[in-house]
Each structure stands twice: as C-alpha cells, then as structure tokens.
Amino acid sequence: MSARGGAPTAVAIAAGGDPVVWHDAENGAFAADLKLFERLASARPGGVADLGAGTGRVTLALAAAGHPVTAVDTDVALLDALADRARARDLAVATARCDVRALDLGRRFPLIVAPMQLLHIVGGEAGRRRTLAGVRSHLAPGGRFCAVVLAEPLPTGVGRPDPVPDVREVAGWIHSSLPVEVRIDADGIRMVRSRQLVAPDGAL
To answer: Residue 177 pairs with which residues in a beta bridge?
Structure first.
C-alpha cells in the first residue's frame, strides 16, 4: 500500500502476478546445492557461468562469496531483477540473455554450473547434446561443469507431488503456487502448478 495526501491506494501489479515474484516463490528457497557450488568455485577461481540463473538464487550466493559470476537466462525480466539485486549489494555479476542450447558468451570459464532441473527441461536428448556442446566450448582448460541431474532412467508418466504451496508476499500481494502434477517423458520433466494471486484487499 502507498499513501498520497493521506489516502491509501493499492499497489499496482501486472495481470497474473509479478513473474519475478513467481520465480522467487517457486525456485528461490532451495539452498541444498549452494555449499557445493561455493566449494567448486573456490577450487577454480576466475569466474563462474550460472546457466538458467533466473532471479539469482545461485548467482548472488556465489558473488557474495567473492566469485565473479555471469548469469545466463532467456528471461529478460528475471535477468533485470537479478542485475538490480547485484547492483544493490555491489556484487560482481554480469548477465547474458542466451539460450543454453546455443551458448555464445564470448569467453571461457573455470566453472560452469547448471543447477536444479535445467538439463531435464532443454528438450530431451537433442537439447542436452546441444547444451553440453556449448558448455564444452566455454570451459577453460582444466575447467569443470557441474550439473544437477536426477538418476535415470526416470519413471515416465504422471505423478503427484507433495501438496505444499510455494508462497511469497510482496507489497501486500500474495503469490501462492501449488504443485499439482509432475509429467515425465522423453523430452524432460514438466511441473504443473496451480497459481493463486491474492490482492491486498483479499480479492482472489
């Protein structure tokens, strides 16, 4: 809420909610891999490429630990939010809008990371081959690529995740995202979510 002349007014928000807030709610709280990435970055100083960086869950943690990071994503809104957060904290972060299946970053890195389920959502085997080829061309001599993957073969079909919603409140708006279905096929993994946006006045 904001007040002008003593009269409160609702904070405006895009129809369907804020994509940055949705991303933070659905992905931002996971931290189980951060210590691993920090350890790998410390062992290979000189810069990290974070593939599928989103709003900066991994990028900002690595930059805060003193590592220069290039954050790669296809979503401009997410990269802009990440860049704003890095500037606010005076962190060494560069952003690059790029599809990981066609990497073109103009330099090589001692460490490239692909957190969470990235390699499972690039379009199956063909997409993974293109991603890995791009990674190889961007690794410095002796460099390492660290990707988080699920053990294969994955059980193809449809399943139901635990019904616990991911929730984030910003400026009085509540973004609630409930995982309702997981679909696994040859092209990868897709999570189906039910999103609910609650306005400051309680309207759904």
So the answer is: 166, 195
CB 168 within 8 A of CB 25: yes
Take residue 80 and report the two structure tokens written for it: 């802009």
Helices assigned H by DSSP within the chain = 19-27, 34-43, 57-64, 76-88, 124-138
Instruction: List, in order, residues 6 or more apart from 44 with CB less than 8 Å away.
Output: 110, 111, 142, 143, 144
Q: Can you tell me whether residue 69 is helix, strand or coil?
A: strand
Instruction: Report the alpha-carbon angle 99-104-110, nearest 5.
Output: 105
Q: Which residue has the tokens 């990435």?
A: 37
Q: How many helices (H) and strands (E) does the chain have?
A: 5, 11
pLDDT tens per residue across span 50-79? 999 999 999 999 999 999 999 999 999 999
Residue 90 CB neighbour total at 10 angstroms: 8
Nearest CA-CA partner of 138 in 110, 101, 117: 110
State pTM to two decimals: 0.77
Residues comprising the chain, all counted: 204
How far is residue 1's CA from residue 180's CA, in Å, rounded to a whole number?
32
